[in-house]
Amino acid sequence: MLNYSIILSWVRQTIKNFNDYAFSFFATDSGAIAGDRNVLNDHLLN
Predict the structure, then answer these.
(1) What does the alpha-carbon distance between residue 27 and residue 30 come to, in Å, rounded to a whole number?
(2) Distance CA 17, CA 25 (A)
(3) What is the DSSP string of the chain?
(4) How far apart are CA 6 and CA 13, in angstroms?
(5) What does the pLDDT read at residue 36?
(6) Is the pLDDT of residue 32 over 60?
(7) What is the widest separation between alpha-carbon atoms in the chain?
(8) For residue 2, how many C-alpha atoms fall within 13 Å in the half-sphere facing its CB?
(9) CA atoms lying within 13 Å on the CB side of residue 39
(10) CA angle at residue 23 from 28 to 4, to 5 degrees?
(11) pLDDT at res. 34
(12) What span, in angstroms and rounded, lies between the C-alpha atoms of 11 and 37?
């Protein structure tokens, strides 16, 4: 049987990696949407 602490640390690291990836994905996605909205507002105002 594998050591429980090894499994626990692996699970924790996997969750952390997933959270970092998901955060960067959503951050860039919302940033791109905000950028598109600013461009659209510039077109509407000018």
Answers:
(1) 5
(2) 12
(3) ---HHHHHHHHHHHHHHHHHHHHHHHHHHHHHHHHHHHHHHHHHH-
(4) 11
(5) 61
(6) no
(7) 68
(8) 7
(9) 6
(10) 155
(11) 55
(12) 39
For the record, the structure tokens of 42 come out as: 């510039």
pTM of the model: 0.42
Residue that the structure tokens 């969750």 belong to: 15
The full length of the chain comes to: 46
Name the token pair of 5. Answer: 């602490």
The token pair that represents 29 in the structure block: 């996605």
